[in-house]
């Protein structure tokens, strides 16, 4: 009889050839710089120390191996604070910006401590790097490996989720605060949280001052390997590492995956007028895409600089970084901000099969992770439907967002677009062999209006950002239905209530992978601000009073998610064909006009019926599905709908009605009223109904 040994802990502690490596009698420090003429290690005793306790010079003859400077320092260990300092040519015309006085963050630092200090000698003193002990008791934790087609993603901000006093948690605004709210996430039914950037980014400006516009969203990376210190409850250097791991472990124990929003497209060092904090002072011409012979920075990110993601050295750093988060933090996936930049070569040109994109897709050590592209950038690249090759990459589907918004707003000619998005966007993904789940469907994201504001404001209201309203998108596909902002007018409040339910129901019941934004389920508002990147206050924070105030919307969303996860009919693994599935006599999808006849796609009406047939046992042995009948009326008038002949003779029950109020807006047990015997359904304006059949077992 074979004896099985217990599985070892998932503790790879993958050692990259760079950064600090803790050894038995000291720490090995390694850093890349091809053009530096000298390298120094600055060691600090305390976070508040303005000057290093010791400066150690790397010996160019014995401490340099190729382009890697590496030195062992005995007698120190985890908790040690440090910077690098490099001498070299100051030659901006050829891309070199070495400054021998600059104190540099290690690109591979695993934690930072403190913040920028005020400097009277114009020497920028950035946060200190921390030597980290990676050991952690994961207690057998593993990646959850939930397929995308069984996922519901919840985009959230770690700080904003619990920072409000209304959260009533002990560790508000922190990784530990998220742990305290896990029961809420479980009750909602989501399967994954997509965290807005948790890589280190600046809290203060480079002179140690609180900026006029705080960096709330965090899309301004400073150290890719380090969890953000500002989200730790404990201020001890390196505590953020432990607290972040505790959060991941707790979420996994609750069955919730963790996806990181990563920003490998630019850094906080900015353009040629920005500070030298790390990459600029180590090898500027390699880490960034430069123009004009090297003097200026290409700006495909819209943030001042562009990371040179397809240079071999930078590719290796990103590759090591992804493995670091997967194996040291058990991260389940990544959403790549402005991912099209990873498709640009060292001259900024978009190239087919870019090495970085292919490397991420094919790396065997990342095979269990989800990889999601924001398939555009700030310089005009738009690759939705064509990012990467093969089936590995999923994408934020910006076309889904726009088409769903425009249909429910009542824009003419959007019926066909809505049907295409509802069916999984085969026009974008089928040609490359990808499945419907490759489409990450969303109606709102952190960037733009909340779902509530989408039906309350025609125009953005961003004056609080201090940019005189110049920031933020002017094309929101939104409406206010008669009054800009809050109103007591009952008719307007009623149509707004329907519209938020219409869009939430469309999102959750579409083929593909739904992503909703934290707070949309309780109608969180940003008061019309569609670019709250600098609002670290009640404008952005989750107001937990809304959980009770808008309990109807919360219950509606919970019921939708429960239905989706239970019904393979609305989350098929292959695209709908309009043909019968094996074992069924009716098409997997069919479309009808309100009079029950086959839909004329040339019509300009905004009303239709979609019939989704459940996969049969023959097609999916594990399937216990129901046929689904969806009725859409996005016109401004009530309409009569004649149910189509397909499905006649089956028992049907109402599942949801967006024009009704709780509890008649959603029947969680699928036991709502049956259609009238005449099979004629009265549909109010701007409303949606869904009927479900008896279980299909054949």
UniProtKB/TrEMBL annotation:
Keywords: Glycosidase, Hydrolase
Span of the signal peptide: none
An individual GO BP term: glycogen catabolic process
Ranges of compositional bias, category Basic and acidic residues: 464-473
Region (Disordered): 464-488
Molecular functions per Gene Ontology: amylo-alpha-1,6-glucosidase activity
Enzyme Commission identifier(s): 3.2.1.-
SUPFAM superfamilies: (Trans)glycosidases, E set domains, Glycosyl hydrolase domain
Family the UniProt entry places it in: Belongs to the glycosyl hydrolase 13 family.
Record NCBIfam families: glgX_debranch
Name under which the protein is recorded: Glycogen debranching enzyme
Species annotation: Roseimaritima ulvae
Gene it is expressed from: glgX_1
């Amino acid at each position: 009889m074979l004896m099985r040994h217990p599985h070892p802990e998932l503790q790879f502690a993958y050692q990259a050839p760079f950064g600090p490596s803790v050894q038995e009698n000291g720490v090995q420090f390694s850093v890349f710089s091809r053009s530096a003429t000298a390298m120094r290690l600055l060691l600090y005793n305390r976070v508040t120390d303005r000057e290093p306790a010791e400066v150690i010079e790397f010996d160019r003859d014995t401490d340099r191996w190729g382009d890697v400077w590496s030195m062992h320092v005995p007698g120190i260990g985890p908790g040690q604070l440090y910077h690098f300092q490099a001498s070299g040519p100051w030659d901006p015309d050829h891309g070199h910006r070495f400054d021998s006085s600059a104190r540099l963050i290690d690109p591979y630092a695993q934690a930072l401590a403190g913040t920028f200090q005020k400097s009277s000698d114009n020497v920028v003193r950035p946060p200190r790097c921390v030597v980290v002990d990676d050991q952690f008791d994961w207690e057998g934790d593993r990646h959850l490996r939930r397929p995308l087609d069984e996922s519901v993603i919840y985009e959230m901000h770690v700080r904003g989720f619990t920072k409000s006093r209304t959260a009533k948690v002990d560790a508000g605004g922190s990784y530990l605060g998220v742990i305290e709210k896990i029961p809420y996430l479980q009750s909602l039914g989501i399967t994954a949280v997509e965290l807005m950037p948790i890589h280190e980014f600046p809290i203060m400006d480079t002179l140690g001052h609180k900026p006029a516009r705080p960096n709330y969203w965090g899309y301004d990376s400073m150290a890719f390997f380090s969890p953000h210190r500002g989200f730790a409850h404990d201020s001890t250097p390196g505590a953020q590492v432990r607290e972040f791991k505790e959060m991941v472990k707790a979420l996994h124990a609750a069955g919730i995956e963790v996806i990181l929003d990563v920003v490998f497209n630019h850094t906080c060092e900015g353009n040629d007028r920005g500070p030298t904090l790390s990459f600029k002072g180590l090898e500027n011409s390699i880490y960034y895409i430069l123009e004009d012979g090297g003097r200026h920075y290409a700006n495909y990110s819209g943030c001042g600089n562009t990371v040179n993601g397809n240079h071999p050295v930078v590719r290796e750093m990103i590759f090591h970084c992804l493995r670091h988060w997967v194996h040291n933090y058990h991260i389940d996936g990544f959403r790549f901000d402005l991912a099209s930049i990873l498709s640009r070569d060292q001259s900024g040109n978009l190239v087919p099969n870019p090495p970085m994109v292919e490397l991420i897709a094919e790396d065997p050590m990342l095979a269990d992770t989800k990889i999601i592209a924001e398939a555009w950038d700030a310089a005009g690249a738009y690759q939705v439907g064509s990012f990467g090759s093969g089936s590995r990459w999923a994408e934020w589907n910006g076309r889904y967002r726009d088409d769903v918004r425009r249909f429910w707003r009542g824009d003419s000619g959007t019926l066909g677009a809505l049907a295409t998005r509802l069916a999984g966007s085969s026009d974008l993904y089928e040609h490359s062999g990808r499945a419907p789940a490759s489409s990450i469907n969303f109606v709102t994201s952190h960037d733009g209006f909340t779902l509530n504001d989408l039906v309350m404001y025609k125009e953005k209201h961003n004056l609080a950002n201090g940019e005189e309203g110049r920031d933020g998108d002017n094309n929101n596909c939104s409406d206010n239905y008669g009054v800009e902002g809050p109103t007591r007018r009952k008719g307007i409040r009623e149509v707004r209530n329907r519209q938020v339910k219409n869009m939430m129901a469309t999102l959750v019941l579409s083929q593909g992978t739904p992503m909703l934004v934290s707070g949309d389920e309780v109608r969180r508002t940003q008061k019309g601000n569609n670019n709250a990147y600098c609002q670290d206050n009640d404008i952005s924070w989750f107001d937990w009073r809304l959980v009770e105030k808008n309990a109807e919307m919360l219950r509606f969303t919970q019921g939708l998610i429960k239905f989706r996860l239970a019904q393979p009919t609305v989350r098929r693994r292959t695209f709908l064909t309009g043909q019968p599935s094996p074992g069924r006599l009716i098409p997997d999808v069919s479309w009808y006009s309100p009079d029950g006849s086959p839909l004329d796609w040339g019509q300009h009406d905004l009303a239709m019926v979609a019939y989704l047939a459940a996969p049969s046992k023959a097609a999916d042995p594990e399937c216990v599905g129901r046929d689904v009948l969806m009725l859409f009326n996005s016109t401004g008038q009530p309409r009569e709908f004649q149910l189509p002949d397909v499905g006649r003779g089956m028992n049907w029950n109402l599942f949801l009605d967006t024009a009704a109020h709780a509890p008649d807006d959603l029947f969680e047990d699928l036991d709502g009223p049956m259609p009238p015997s005449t099979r004629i359904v009265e549909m109010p304006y701007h409303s949606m109904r869904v009927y479900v059949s008896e279980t299909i077992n054949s």
